[in-house]
């Protein structure tokens, strides 16, 4: 057990640190520090897409774009510990790769695992270098938690497929060059059995992207509508009707590549409580505040060390467990509770959101409005508890009334 | 003993709900949320015409002279409908302060216009410590200087009751300030719930008339905050119940894995817990309504209990309403966020939950001293 | 809305108070005050059963034993408000009727509703007067939450029935003269359909009662074993195979007669916090303590007023809702949390349970050990949430894999 | 970087678990729980023979001279098995106090016998405020007077380290007191978990030998409590994991409504939340183990975080283990209450959760001063 670097790790860390020092856009640091959560806010007039593409390209050229990947595809076969070190050293600048979360966490690994040689050849380099932006076309209005219940159809036409339907919660769809699409190719089969995975160009005729306005006003989410969109068959990823297995690979990758950092809001709260003067002195001196802080502190540190432990297990060749599920499950409601707690300390001033009149630059107000999404996106709290119960503790799955029934019969029952 | 509203009060509730369901749709709430209007004047007129603004104002001052129980019933319905109107500011705070501390002349001047819905009043108490912080509000030679923020309906109010220190006093006094006077500058500020507008008020020598005795602001406000807390608690209960209904309805209708999501225990139990919160809050607010109506010595503790439990219930129900809705729950287009916003606004607008918790225990302990 | 007595109510209260003043065993008051929860602890050497029978008898003779019942059966047709007033005035002495909880809350009302005239004639008076002690024979080791899954068999023999099987969690089985028994009379029917209700004498040959030792050592619970126990058919309550409907009546009565008082532990905690000196002054002055107290205070008062409201609704002829479920659901975990909170305040001394060295006479230590049972007996937290969700909010029942299947086929699947 | 125990440490864990599963059954735990024996001498001998008592005692004083990581691994297994042995008192407190504050002569006299399992030591610090409260412990002329309660293993310990005020000192000092001396009176006291015995000790002029410098007790205890907190946290994690396993196994086996209760979401999600608590506690204890082993400046904060999260996890898992079991969960005959008792005992025995919460924040804040 050693929470410090070995000599080799220290050398790797130095290399990473030196490169960051010489190459990162340090002038953006204050902007990145201020950017709330999922959003990236840059100086006025700066093109956010261009800035992110530039940083990704620089990393790619120096071999830092996706260090865990094979060297053949732009990586450096880095160990889990090296991945962690890089993450720590890249630090705040990771935010500048937000646009490529799908590229690096979802599409890339899926193509790497399930793509043909030709597909890898054509798609991977621009995926990692950031030349292409990718989006993920999985969720639908009627199938969120129940992903396999999706209805978007892909039907055989000539040497390809014709797609009709609607996707939702698609991040970066406006910027995306390519999409990873899961569609139903045989509604006569049971729901998991009739799905196929595709890659498609987002400028294909028949695609319409509409942004979704969320509770906090701005958002990177979109609805994507497909009307007779054609996909050549060589853009099929994996076998026909084998899409569910490919999707599982994707979702697994998502879990594998999740970083060791999960944002619980605790660091900000601790900082705020150390600075904030209440009627009775510093907030942090109040026993009520202290007790709450301690309860959140151990969750925040626990998640951090659990993620580190997962990396150690991975290093030993063990398959990581559901640490990612736990992190998101705990962090989601913590963000919400912490935001409410901080606003309560601010009392009436807590209801102000304008950054120029709000306390602590209105960060907890932003957190409050973002937090409901955290408990839902990428798996609701309820789905995550099911995952832990079933995959870790070995408890039975929920009773499935829609199992082994042709999809079109469920769908009709539904209407 | 009768721990429920009377048939007449239930009838009032039904008619209020009927009107508000028709007039105060969430589309109207959104219009205020997304726009620059201070509040919805049509709804406000309707409410005033039904006598809601003056329900608890004595007949001699132009009100209906009904009791607080009627006002509680109305408040619950306004809360349920998320009504974008200056009810808290004008009826719960301004009118109650006047009733408690105003001279007969002051009451005669303002209360009839409140009852008619023609005068918007508010209370300007908080002084923000944010970037806009200034010197504390002070009155010298009848002129008020200082900054107040956030002030509920501060942008559209005709008149404000301002808490300020007169000359070198150690304790503050209440002042009536006409907001159309010279020396008043208003700036809209955005809050967690823009369907209820707030403003920053800057006073630079505005004429101020004393309300109540000099140095008595803290005492007067204490009493009126208890009354307002009961009325706001009813709004919170109304909002919580509606949020729970929306969540329940959606759980019955939305299908996943081939069955309604409301058939999964995770959702069932989440909704059951929301109902428990609501039941506890409702019971406490009923007791507080009785204490308010009967001017009981129980009011301070009962008001705090109503406030604490209703804040908990509304936040709980509005938050989990989003969770039950899943992804669409946090879209702008669905109404869930309207309840989430309002619940978080009301949790702060009469002072924070932790402040009320402390008040509750201090009051219980006085009552049951060992 | 009026939380005070009307003139008639005030008169009734005075009558009750005067009678209590003149007739209650006031010398037992300090003992009853000290008795923890479900237990009744009386002065050494005093016969607990005799003392309780004596009090019940005195109430019966004066018409106070069961005031909500019809006059014909020893009651006074009291209104819900009068029931509440009596409960408030009897106060601490209610504990002295603990032995008759089943008589008055379960058996009596069930016989009243479902019994034949002959059964009412024979059984009700001694049930109310306390001459007979009753017990309830419903739960079984393999059917707790799933009550209708019970296996104890009653088979036709001559002019009666022969019972074999086992019951569990039977309070007062040792003292009981009579039992209310739910047994399976037709295993070929679906599980709810094959049950029948009986009353039986507890001194019938073939009954064996074994006490259950629980976590807190002493307990009033028992296991009851039946070996070829004969019950004459005139002790059947309701139709053959109609027992589930009778049981529902029983369970409904249980809910109806639950008092307005639910013990959450809050009053004791508030009292303790007002007396207890910590290193930093009175516990109640600590902001952490204050905040916790407030959160529990509103739950305690909320439950109290909700129960009062249920009584008002009942007065208007409305059927009371699930207020009882809510009370037990909230109180169960509150007792546990409050006990832990108080022990935490006591720090190391909190682990002492001996009344002569423990703080606050060890009451919170007793509460800690009793509280797990509160969250389970009479409906687990989980069953109560289901009841609220289904009966109040109208949500669907859980998916039932054992519905409409002959019981003996489920049972075999089970083994 | 390696955030896990080594293969050798895992091997030690496996062998400890194997032995304890065989030797330290819950039947043995019950024998102590229900009887008057101070602890289970057979298990204690076995543990001592395996070197567990002296794992972290230097070789020069008869120990194995292994590190704290090994002791953590052992502690986890003892916690899992609810071992009814004086490990906390003798190994985590007495031996650690000696190691930190003892003279070479004191170490040489006692540590080898601790390592052999031949000497039971304890710490007598708390002075109850209950009915048995007396004057605070004081030493005058080398003689100790006062009352200590509760003292872990106070009934069977050979020797105690007693916190007492020497003469008129403002700060207390540690003293070694042979409990077989004249002037020591012991009374068994019952606690939440009688499988770990406690006593009330009355000292009436018992000979006392100073341990460490005069007036340094607070400082020494502070350091040793941090070490002990880490070791107890490992016991709590071990107990929590076992309670979770028992709950999970029962949920798979118990059938209601025609299916395993573990197929109901209410139970699944309850178990998932227990697993989350456990995972968080385990991660914090691992970090604290590293800080302890490497004598890092992180130890004070890490120990407090381990303590707070492990207390939460064990209480959470032991409580819900009963809930999953339903009725039989609170019978004497089922083992659930053994875990419930131990979790509540350990939650208090090194100071309360709220005290550790305050320590944690005070230490984090020192570390990250703004």
Automatic annotation (TrEMBL), chains A, C:
Residues 135-229 form the Acyl-CoA oxidase/dehydrogenase middle domain. Pfam families: Acyl-CoA_dh_1 (PF00441), Acyl-CoA_dh_M (PF02770), Acyl-CoA_dh_N (PF02771). Residues 241-393 form the Acyl-CoA dehydrogenase/oxidase C-terminal domain. Keywords: FAD, Flavoprotein, Oxidoreductase. Its cofactor is FAD. Residues 7-130 form the Acyl-CoA dehydrogenase/oxidase N-terminal domain. Belongs to the acyl-CoA dehydrogenase family. This is Acyl-CoA dehydrogenase family protein.
From TrEMBL, chains B, D:
It is an enzyme of class 1 (oxidoreductase). It comes from Sphingosinicella rhizophila. CDD domains: ACAD. Residues 229-352 form the Acyl-CoA dehydrogenase/oxidase C-terminal domain. This is Acyl-CoA dehydrogenase family protein. Signal peptide: none annotated. Keywords: FAD, Flavoprotein, Oxidoreductase. Its EC number is 1.-.-.-. Its cofactor is FAD. One of its GO terms (molecular function) is oxidoreductase activity. InterPro entries: Acyl-CoA_Oxase/DH_mid-dom_sf, AcylCo_DH-like_C, AcylCo_DH/oxidase_C, AcylCoA_DH/ox_N, AcylCoA_DH/ox_N_sf, AcylCoA_DH/oxidase_NM_dom_sf. It comes from the Bacteria. Belongs to the acyl-CoA dehydrogenase family. The keyword Flavoprotein applies. Residues 6-118 form the Acyl-CoA dehydrogenase/oxidase N-terminal domain. The lineage of its organism: Bacteria, Pseudomonadati, Pseudomonadota, Alphaproteobacteria, Sphingomonadales.
């Amino acid at each position: 057990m050693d929470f410090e670097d070995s000599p080799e790790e220290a050398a790797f860390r130095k290399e990473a640190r030196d490169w960051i020092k010489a190459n990162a856009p340090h002038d953006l640091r204050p902007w990145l520090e201020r950017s709330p959560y999922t959003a990236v806010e840059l100086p006025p007039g700066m093109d956010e897409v261009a800035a992110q593409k530039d940083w990704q390209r620089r990393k790619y050229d120096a071999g830092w774009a996706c260090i865990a990947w094979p060297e053949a595809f732009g990586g450096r076969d880095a160990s889990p510990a090296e991945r962690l070190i890089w993450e720590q050293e890249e630090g705040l600048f990771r935010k500048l790769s937000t646009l490529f979360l799908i590229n690096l966490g979802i599409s890339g690994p899926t193509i790497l695992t399930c793509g043909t040689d030709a597909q890898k050849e054509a798609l991977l380099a621009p995926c990692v270098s950031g030349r292409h932006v990718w989006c993920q076309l999985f969720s639908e209005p009627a199938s969120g938690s129940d992903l396999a219940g999706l209805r978007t159809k892909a039907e055989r036409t000539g040497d390809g497929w014709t797609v009709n339907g609607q996707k939702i919660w698609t991040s970066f769809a406006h910027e995306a060059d390519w999409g990873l699409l899961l569609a139903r190719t045989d509604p006569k089969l049971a729901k998991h059995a009739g799905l196929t995975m595709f890659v498609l160009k987002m400028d294909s005729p028949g695609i319409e992207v509409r942004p979704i306005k969320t509770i906090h006003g701005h958002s990177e989410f979109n609805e994507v509508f497909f009307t007779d969109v054609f996909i050549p068959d060589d853009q099929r990823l994996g076998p026909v009707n084998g899409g569910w297995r490919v999707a599982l690979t994707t979702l697994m990758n998502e879990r594998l590549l999740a970083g060791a950092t999960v944002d619980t809001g605790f660091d900000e709260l601790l900082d705020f409580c150390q600075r904030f003067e209440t009627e009775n002195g510093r907030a942090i001196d109040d026993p009520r505040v202290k007790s709450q802080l301690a309860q959140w502190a151990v969750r925040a540190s626990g998640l951090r060390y659990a993620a580190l432990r997962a990396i150690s297990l991975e290093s030993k060749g063990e398959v990581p467990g559901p640490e990612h599920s736990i992190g998101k499950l705990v962090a989601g409601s913590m963000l919400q509770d912490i935001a409410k707690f901080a606003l309560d300390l601010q009392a009436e001033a807590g209801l102000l959101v304008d950054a120029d009149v709000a306390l602590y630059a209105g960060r907890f107000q932003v957190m409050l409005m973002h937090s409901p999404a955290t408990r839902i996106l990428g798996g609701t709290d309820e789905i995550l508890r099911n995952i832990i119960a079933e995959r870790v503790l070995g408890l039975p799955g929920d009773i499935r009334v829609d199992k082994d029934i042709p999809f079109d019969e469920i769908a009709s029952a539904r209407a | 003993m009768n721990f429920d509203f009377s048939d007449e009060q239930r009838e009032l509730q039904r008619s209020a709900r009927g009107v508000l369901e028709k007039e105060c749709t969430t589309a109207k709430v959104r219009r205020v949320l997304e726009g620059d209007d201070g509040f919805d004047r049509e709804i406000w007129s309707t409410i005033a015409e039904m006598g809601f603004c003056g329900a608890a104002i004595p007949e001699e001052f132009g009100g209906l002279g009904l009791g607080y129980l009627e006002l509680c019933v109305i408040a619950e319905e306004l809360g349920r409908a998320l009504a974008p109107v200056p009810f808290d500011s004008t009826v719960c705070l301004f009118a109650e302060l006047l009733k408690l501390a105003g001279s007969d002349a002051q009451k005669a001047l303002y209360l009839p216009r409140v009852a008619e819905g023609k005068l918007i009043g508010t209370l300007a108490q908080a002084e923000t410590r944010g970037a806009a912080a200034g010197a504390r509000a002070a009155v010298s030679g009848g002129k008020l200087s200082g900054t107040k923020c956030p002030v509920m309906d501060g942008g559209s109010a005709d008149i404000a009751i301002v808490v300020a220190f007169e000359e070198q006093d150690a304790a503050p006094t209440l002042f009536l300030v006409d907001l159309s006077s010279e020396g008043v500058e208003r700036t809209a500020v955005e809050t967690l719930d823009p369907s209820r507008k707030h403003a920053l008020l800057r006073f630079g020598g505005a004429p101020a008339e004393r309300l109540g005795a000099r140095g008595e602001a803290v005492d007067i406000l204490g009493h009126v905050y208890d009354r307002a807390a009961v009325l706001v608690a009813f709004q919170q209960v109304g909002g919580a119940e509606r949020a729970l209904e929306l969540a329940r309805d959606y759980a019955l209708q939305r299908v996943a894995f081939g069955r309604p999501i409301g058939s999964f225990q995770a959702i069932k139990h989440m909704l059951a817990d929301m109902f428990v919160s609501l039941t506890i809050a409702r019971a406490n607010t009923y007791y507080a309504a009785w204490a308010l109506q009967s001017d009981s010595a129980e009011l301070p503790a009962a008001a705090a209990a109503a406030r604490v439990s209703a804040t908990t219930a509304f936040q709980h129900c509005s938050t989990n309403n989003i969770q039950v809705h899943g992804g669409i729950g946090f879209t702008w287009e669905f109404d869930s966020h309207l309840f989430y916003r309002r619940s978080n606004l009301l949790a702060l607008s009469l002072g924070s939950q932790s402040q009320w918790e402390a008040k509750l225990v201090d009051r219980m302990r006085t009552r049951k001293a060992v």
